[in-house]
Amino acid sequence: MLPQPIVEQLVAIVGESRLLLEADDLQRFGVDRTTLWQAAPCGVVLPGTVEEVQSIVRLANQYNLAVVPSGGRTGLSGGAVAKDGELVVALDRMNQVIEFNPVDRSVKVGAGMITGQLQQFAEEQGLFYPVDFASSGSSQIGGNIATNAGGIKVIKYGMTRNWVAGLKVVNGAGDLFELNKGLAKNNTGYDLRHLFIGSEGTLGLICEATIQLAATPLESSVMVLGIEYFSEIVDVLTCFSRDLDLSAFEFFSQQALDKVVAHRGHAVPFQTETAFYALLEFEHSSPDVVDKAMELFERCVDKGWVMDGVLSQSLSQAKNLWKLREDISETLWQWQPYKNDISVRISRMADFLGEVDQLVMEQYPDFEIIWYGHIGDGNLHLNILKPEVLSVDQFHSKCANVSSSIGQLLAKYEGSVSAEHGVGLLKKDYLHYSRSAVEMDMMRSIKRAFDPNHIMNPGKLFDC
User: Fold this and answer.
1) Which cofactor is essential here (predicted)?
2) What is the pLDDT of residues 315-364, one digit of tens each?
3) In a domain, 394, yes or no
4) From CA 328, how far away is CA 370, in angstroms rounded?
5) Which end of the chain has fewer surrounding CB within 10 Å, N or C?
6) Could you tell me if 365 and 439 lie in one domain?
7) For the CA atoms of 397, 402, 407, 409, what is the dihedral angle to 10 degrees?
8) To 10 degrees, the CA torsion angle through 199, 27, 86, 34?
9) 60 to each of 54, 64, 351, how far by Cα in Å?
10) Which residue segment(s) compose the domain that 428 sits in?
């Protein structure tokens, strides 16, 4: 429970209705999409201005009160979990478009703006915000930036980092920083903006962001290809990307397709069943591009890499094909999956996946494994489904052993234990597989500089 003096001062900052202390609110704002930890915040405060955020952080420093930033709470690594009596600072009210500049093709928004709303705003201006993923309808821009969110179009447009032209942040001491100010060129020493991108709320609170927008993309077509061996997915990617400007190249397994078709009612793309499926998207300005895609498809069939395939003939068919991939994550939640969000270089993916499959089959034969991911940028999602015979605690204990073994493989392949979901609570014990001891000490030094009293999202990313 919050001491009464703190309650009174928070009410003075944001108003009585914007300090939430009821159990239902604490539960709702105290967790993200992970299910391993119980929400136990001391309160939830909803500031509406940067000045209110500053006042809250300074008050937290005065009382040595830990703060957990909260966005859309769609994270998958426990980065927004408040389990130890922290104060949750939710940015939901800071969701306005602050300024739009058509000359610069940029928009300044509050950190609480929903990703999908930013995409819609860009579309209304005849522009495009390309960072897209399944949770765009509920995730917030501040959280996207704090985790450097990726998604389905990274192969063409890059991560969130590529689109952040400026930030207004409050650090752990309550100081206000305006970082980069929307400049395209600013070669004046350390770019502190990039420290906050991907920092998972451990350095401070992102309050406003200046986002660069892109030109509206051309009309797109979608292909789904049936492929028997994972190594041949990489061959297909190499073949298509050499001659087409791909905007996406995704993959999923037959098991993933079976789950989505059974539980979402989607139609299979074609009758041939294969071990894996590749979904690729490309923009085109003329029929020649589509003809080139079909030529490449026929080349892959002749090589024996592709068993069957389909090319979208309409916008609605393209959307339906995308649903086969996009709906996998939501479909799997009913099995309480243990998720590994990992990456290796594309050239090493086939060997890595083969070793992981062998490891899991030998040591954990009762586990059902579902593979899917963003193959075009080397990002694999390994989902281990909970067997009915295991309790949640038993299941996660076994999965921790799996993650350690996979971490050792990632170290061998020079990969990452977290490709796009962040580290949070879930991955911090495995961070050393991707970061050296010197790097981790340096990150702790950076945190001390921005958050001297260690109040910002403590216990996430690493322990100080």
Assistant:
1) FAD
2) 999 999 999 999 999 899 889 888 889 999 999 998 998 898 888 888 77
3) yes
4) 9
5) N
6) yes
7) 160
8) -30
9) 10, 6, 49
10) 336-443
Q: What is the pLDDT of residue 436?
A: 96
Do residues 140 and 82 share a domain? no
pLDDT band at 34 (very low <50, low <70, confident <90, very high): confident
Q: Which of 180, 215, 250 is the last residue of a domain?
A: 215
Task: Give 423's contacts (C-beta < 8 A, 6+ positions apart).
Answer: 77, 79, 200, 417, 431, 460, 461, 462
Domain count, the chain: 4
Q: What confidence tier does 402 reach under pLDDT thresholds 50, 70, 90?
A: confident
Q: Are residues 341 and 393 in the same domain?
A: yes
CATH number at residue 396: 3.30.70.2740
Distances (CA, A) of 141 to 209, 211, 258, 329: 8, 9, 33, 20
- Pairing relationship of beta strands 87-90 and 67-70 according to DSSP bridges: parallel
1 band by pLDDT with thresholds 50, 70 and 90: confident
Pair 161, 72 in one domain: no
Concatenated DSSP letters for 219-264?
PEEEEEEEESSHHHHHHHHHHHHHHS-EEEEEEEEHHHHHHHHHHH
Cα radius of gyration (the chain): 23
Which burial class, exposed, middle or buried, applies to 176 when counting CB atoms under 10 A from its CB (0-12, 13-18, 19+)? middle
> What gap in Å lies between CA 441 and CA 464, rounded to an integer?
9
Q: Choose the final residue of a domain: 163, 198, 215.
A: 215
CA–CA dist 302, 305 (Å, integer): 8
Per-residue confidence (pLDDT) for residue 361, from 0 to 100: 81
Lowest mean pLDDT among 119-128, 276-285, 327-336: 327-336
Please report, in angstroms and rounded to a whole number, the separation of the first and last CA atoms in the chain. Answer: 25
Domain for residue 461, yes or no?
A: no
